[in-house]
Amino acid sequence: MNPSTVAVLNVGILVFREGLECVLVIAAIMASMTGSSRVFRRPIEMGIVAGLLATMGTWWVAARVLSDLTNSVPALQVQAATGLVAVCVLVIVMNWFFHKTYWTGWISMHTRRKVELVKEADANPSRRKRVMLGFAVLGFTSLYREGVEVVLFLQSYRLRLGNAPVASGLAVGLVGTCFIALLTFVLHRRLPYRRMLVVTGVMLGAVLIVMVGEQAQEMQFAHWLPTTTIHPLERVIPDWAGLWFSIFPTIETLTAQLLAVAAVVGSYYLASSGSARERHRPLSV
Fold this sequence. Notes:
This protein is mostly helical. It has helices at 3-30, 41-72, 75-98, 100-123, 128-161, 163-186, 193-221, 231-234, 239-245, 251-280. Helix 3 (75-98) packs across helix 5 (128-161). The chain starts with a helix and ends in a 5-residue tail after the last helix.
């Protein structure tokens, strides 16, 4: 398995995970929009299309800016900087896996806004244009937020490996997302979203380890980090570990990956202890 194949898998996993969250948010917004409320689906759909177009525009701007930067800044430094952004994006996405407020809060905010807009339309039909615009904004934000995260994440791979692996991974993720959207909105299947999000969260954990190892190595190449080789580990760590999982026999790369794992595990225990305190908190009278 070469680096391009690993990149395709990593990109596909992240795009599918973001697409899955987007489908979940849109499904929550459109839930119960039947009968007379069905008319509100149209501005939501228009907002989703606008969000998709805005995501494509953001990709074009980001690619153009980074291409201009490589003409004035050494390519290794640009790659290291974009890789750092990609790791930060991935940590934010991983935050869902252990903090339900990351996604339940986002979904509930859209749901509350939908309820408010429906009530406003019922109470004051003359303000229908404003209500329609509000639903369009809901559709736009439900897609564009995920799109921006994906765009920022993919720039690192694009600079390092070119457009082909990124396009392949994007296609894999979009095919999976479209399949889930088909089951949800056309065939009206009740899917185990929570289980699917947990599974993709575990997969993203592996992607995080790979990304952190790659990022630490790129920062070494850019001379942002020193390179301290652990010579006994050179004979122990096989070449495929560096190729597949970006595990290299240096103190800096291994320390960065251990810190990433510690942050994820620590986040899990913090979230678990917080949930336990909420369950055992006495009810106020």
